[in-house]
Design a protein that fits this description.
- The chain is mostly helical.
- Among the domains are: 30 residues, no CATH class; 91 residues, no CATH class.
- Helix content is 56%, strand content 0%.
- It is built from 9 helices and no strands.
- The protein starts with 10 loop residues before the first helix and ends in an 18-residue tail after the last helix.
- It catalyses: 3-hydroxy-2-methylpropanoyl-CoA + H2O = 3-hydroxy-2-methylpropanoate + CoA + H(+).
Length: 179
């Protein structure tokens, strides 16, 4: 769900005005909301990079995304490569699979997948190493295991998505999902 940009200081006034509308229609609600929107809404900050983003992230793997970024030869692509180089290779691959799989799943199946990922992540070396590097030692120099994308096996990633042992899995009924 997308909502128009309304300054938080004006939300209570907007709510009051919406609740007092006499003739509630799509048009009257829209007009009321527009009254509270700022006059100058800044544009989408990544607009100029959309062609590069679309070309780069259409890849079918994290390695493909990295290769596409290397081919771009732009400051923006270099910045993204620098950011990705600091991240856990395992986490990048898990996130990639999570986004691909989740886009095709029902609401309840997504929650089950997310639950599995949280449970498996806290057991993983990289979660603890990331906490150490950012929160404890604050050296911001994590030692990921495996250290490179190429070293992360498909079976290692599949483990994150596999059912949990025993009755530990999360089960939700699709019939209760209203979204």
């Amino acid at each position: 769900m997308a909502l128009p940009e309304i300054p938080s200081a004006k939300l209570v006034d907007l709510q009051k005005k919406l609740l007092t509308l006499e003739n509630v229609t799509d048009k009257s609600v829209d007009a009321t909301i527009r009254e509270f929107q700022p006059a100058n809404i800044p544009g989408f900050t990544l607009e100029e990079h959309l062609p590069v983003i679309n070309r780069t992230f259409e890849a079918t793997s994290v390695e493909g995304i990295v290769d596409n970024l290397k081919k771009e030869n732009t400051d923006w692509a270099e910045k993204q490569l620098k950011t990705l180089s600091k991240m856990s290779p395992t986490s990048m691959k898990v996130t990639f699979k999570q986004l691909k799989n989740g886009a095709k799943m029902s609401f309840s199946k997504v929650f089950t997948m997310e639950y599995r990922l949280t449970q498996r992540s806290v057991e993983d070396h990289d979660f603890h190493e990331g906490c150490r590097a950012i929160l404890i030692d604050k050296d911001r120099n994590p030692k990921w295991k495996p250290a490179t994308l190429e070293e992360v096996s498909d079976s290692h990633i599949d483990h994150y998505f596999a059912p949990l042992d025993g009755n530990e899995d999360l089960f939700l009924s699709d019939s209760n999902a209203k979204i």
